């Protein structure tokens, strides 16, 4: 399967304009035989939602979204989802004009400049899902930093992890280097879950924050097989061999001995001890 990494900028609050740009990019990817186009987190709405006076959230069944999946390739697109009472930072997967899967971001950062819990509610489910191309799972940005989530996705049969992100460059002196962290994290995730990891980060400046790009694909051995440039918009293509996942998992069956009963017992103990029920 051929994947296109749509490393894009977007205009904060300009949903219509961002939809036009997304459609153009998808058509360009289709012309180069892409099977799947992956966009960054919140690519249709922008990230600094607190600066907007209006509600720009979208229904998952908005026909404009379905239309994005009618140009040939499957599409993963990020947006602020209208969940009636609540809003969600969501990534929707479309194929042939139909919604296949909706992942709502599970872990919303609330530190430094990030204030996602003010504008969105966390999702409640982590599910792998079947597509015409293979079994996948989505982890939106900070979700990928929670080590149990990639493991759960792999245990649920995911062979490809899609990781749309809005990762900014270093914010303050002494803060972590996001490029280094993401490199190490993605490499570790691909190696331990023995799967393909498709990371797509945005670029551009928004509300005083600069996003660095650096989108990439990591193979089941932990090697980067494609890397997009930093700072600039780009459309990067890479071919994925899903049989490589099965080969790797057979060579070293790290995932086979999950011991779910052990995990359930220890989680139940920790829940009881913490009072977090």
Automatic annotation (TrEMBL):
<dbReference type="InterPro" id="IPR050345">
    <property type="entry name" value="Aliph_Amidase/BUP"/>
</dbReference>
<dbReference type="InterPro" id="IPR036526">
    <property type="entry name" value="C-N_Hydrolase_sf"/>
</dbReference>
<protein>
    <submittedName>
        <fullName>Putative amidohydrolase</fullName>
    </submittedName>
</protein>
<feature type="domain" description="CN hydrolase">
    <location>
        <begin position="1"/>
        <end position="242"/>
    </location>
</feature>
<keyword id="KW-0378">Hydrolase</keyword>
<dbReference type="Pfam" id="PF00795">
    <property type="entry name" value="CN_hydrolase"/>
</dbReference>
<dbReference type="InterPro" id="IPR003010">
    <property type="entry name" value="C-N_Hydrolase"/>
</dbReference>
<dbReference type="GO" id="GO:0033388">
    <property type="term" value="P:putrescine biosynthetic process from arginine"/>
</dbReference>
<dbReference type="GO" id="GO:0050126">
    <property type="term" value="F:N-carbamoylputrescine amidase activity"/>
</dbReference>
């Amino acid at each position: 399967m051929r994947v296109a990494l749509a490393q894009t900028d977007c205009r904060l609050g300009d949903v219509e304009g961002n939809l036009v740009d997304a459609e153009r990019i998808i058509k360009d990817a289709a012309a180069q035989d892409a099977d799947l186009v992956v966009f960054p987190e919140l690519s249709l709405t922008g990230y600094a939602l607190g600066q907007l006076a209006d509600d720009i959230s979208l229904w998952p069944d908005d026909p404009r979204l379905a239309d994005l999946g009618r140009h040939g390739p499957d599409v993963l697109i990020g947006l602020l989802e209208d969940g009636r009472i609540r809003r969600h930072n969501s990534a929707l997967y479309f194929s042939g004009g139909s919604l296949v899967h909706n992942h709502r971001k599970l872990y919303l950062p609330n530190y430094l400049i990030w204030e996602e819990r003010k504008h969105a509610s966390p999702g409640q489910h982590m599910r792998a899902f079947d597509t015409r191309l293979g079994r996948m799972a989505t982890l939106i940005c900070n979700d990928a930093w929670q080590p149990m989530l990639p493991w759960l996705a792999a245990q649920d049969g995911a062979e490809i992890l899609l990781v749309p992100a809005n990762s900014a460059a270093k914010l303050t002196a002494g803060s972590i280097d996001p490029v280094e962290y993401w490199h190490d994290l993605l490499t570790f995730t691909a190696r331990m879950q023995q799967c393909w990891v498709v990371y797509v980060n945005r670029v551009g400046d928004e509300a005083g924050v600069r996003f660095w790009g650096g989108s990439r694909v990591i193979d089941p051995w932990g090697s980067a097989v494609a890397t997009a440039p930093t700072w600039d918009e780009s459309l990067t293509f890479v071919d994925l061999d899903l049989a490589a996942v099965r080969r790797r998992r057979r060579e070293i069956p790290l995932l086979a001995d999950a011991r779910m009963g052990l995990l359930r017992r220890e989680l139940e103990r920790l829940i009881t001890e913490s009072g977090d029920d």
